[in-house]
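One chain is below:
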Amino acid sequence: MLRSVNFAVRAALLLIVGVVVFTSRWPGAPYVAVEIAALAVATGVLAVRVPSHWLASAHKHAVLDPYALGLVVVTCGVASATPRGGTFNILSFLAAVAVGSDLDFNIGLAVAGLGIVATAATGLTLGAGAAVIVGYPIVQVLGFVFGRNLRANRLYAQQADQLSEQQARAAALDERARIAREIHDVLAHSLGALGLQIQLARAVLTDQHDQDRAVEVLEQAQRMANEGLNETRRAVQALRGETLPLPEGLAELSANHQCRQSTRVTFDVSGEPRALSPDAELALSRTAQEALVNSAKHAPQEPVTVHLDYTDTDTTLSVSNPLRTKSTPQRPRLTTVNGGYGLAGMHERLLLLDGTLSAGSSADNWVVTAKVPQ
């Protein structure tokens, strides 16, 4: 649309100049020939350049632009310096704008310089006044500078569009990575645990022939499947930003773990609670979930303490439980039923937030600590 308006304005100004030329008192045969030639060149170049900008092969004709625009600048500049030819200064100005806008700086400077020299030389030769000899070249210089500004703005807009596209692609990749982490943290964990329960039920039936025990295991598997579905719904809500505030979510997670594992879970909050970013709250919530799963696997029936601490600089979550035996200096490698990548995924989440994750023994307790900055 802007390009169409641009060409329409140029065509209108060309028409105005033509009307002025053919309706004014003619200055004499030699000068009329120069003005007609300049008008014909400007009309021809405009007629060629308009359709070429919409052709797929327009770049093939770009090599001719310096010659075409240079011809317009020179002929219109010379015509503007003739007696009663001042209206051609409008066309030389427009041509200088096109030179600055469409050509590289060095080539454009050379082409615009030819027009300026031709205008000034013609004015001197014909004994024109200072307004023609100095003023008209200055107008061409201003046209060239204006064209360079248009080119800079156009390039800036193109770079901004490219940057916007790159940011959109990066945002899409980040969202894909986030969804992948959710799938891993929820589905892989739930399905892995469910697979273990099914294997256990099959082993009980085939090896021990204990139907009652197999039924109990299958009931537990059913409960785990239901919990997996609920966890999937919560993950979808998290992706939509529909999660509970972090303290409430951790309190609910602790209560569910206590009910499911028949072990005491203590949850407390210190500091002044505040809203965190959705990604930060989700990372801390998933870390608590992973730590609780590992405590149930490696230290079943041991009490668990979940502590959330708000300070002025960061928010810290710690999940601790006693080691199974005091003689065990190091707890076995933290793994989950999906292959041992749970805490690695939590570490990746926290790194994206400039946070930290640590896990190790401290005073006969195993402590998982996650921290995100304010």
